Amino acid sequence: MSKITAAITGVGGYVPDYILTNKELETMVDTNDEWIRSRTGIVERRILKGANKGTSDLAVNAIKNLLAKTNTQPEEIDFLLCATTTPDFPVPDTGSIICHKAGLVNAFSFSLNAACSGFIFALTTAAKFVESGSHKKVIVVGCDKMSSIINYEDRSTCIIFGDGAGAVLLEPNESGDGLQDALLKNDGVGVANLRVNAGGSSNPATMETVMNKEHFVFQNGRPVFKAAVAGMSDVVQTVMQRNNLSKEDVSWLVPHQANKRIIESVARMADFPLEKVMINIHKYGNTTAGTIPLCLWDYESQLNKGDNIILTAFGGGYTWGAVYLKWAY
Q1: What digits encode the pLDDT tens for the residues 206-242?
Q2: End-to-end CA gap in the chain
């Protein structure tokens, strides 16, 4: 019997209508368009507006797009794995809310938080359910409403992040396409440089934590930049080496969209020409767990069956990794 792999058979995405441009940010914080572009490559980012709108709403729209494109009925989905850093609530789980809103009545679900690496951690985890034969149609969604934890008086973070969601459908494959290999890593030392200080069990919300703006993202940019470049380039090279892949064998490198300078540095260290690197950070900013599936969504028309693709990400914590897959359609 042929080996079962988990193959991506469809991609969906969603970004909110509201566009927060660099020009608008100039009216909110001490920055300017040239400064933002030169340091991050970002021109605009999308922001979810509206009362009581949360991460689940981003995810549901991406899933509806995915189901329509793949001609799949909601009740056919038997598992949903949600990657997010910005859940709707501490309790209940955002995955359950997504299933309810999207009509995935036969799916069980849960969420995981690996920060910006969330999608590749979730993709690798969900693939095991497909490979085992226990689940046939699985959705992995990376989604974050980063605007909910960003201080728009902090120019070091507010220029970077946006809101968005991307989703993929995983199904069994016996022809050799699908996920081939993954290397995932973490190091808790990263909490010193990238975190949200308050709101968790070690520092619960109080009037003081709110007044001190400790519920927003804190980032010490320089060490995060260095760790991201080193981490992503290392795992990409390791995955390629152990699968006997040269740069000519790989059709696309899909890096987390954190900062264009990071993307360019990783591509250079991994010896990838930029024309083979997916980049859309200029349109959406850093949507955290949403960046990689949104890249696949944007570039879907340029992908061909059998293409070798490397996904890589780096996130707070630290978390990082790379996934090697063969495109299945």
Answers
A1: 999 999 999 999 998 899 999 999 999 999 999 999 9
A2: 22
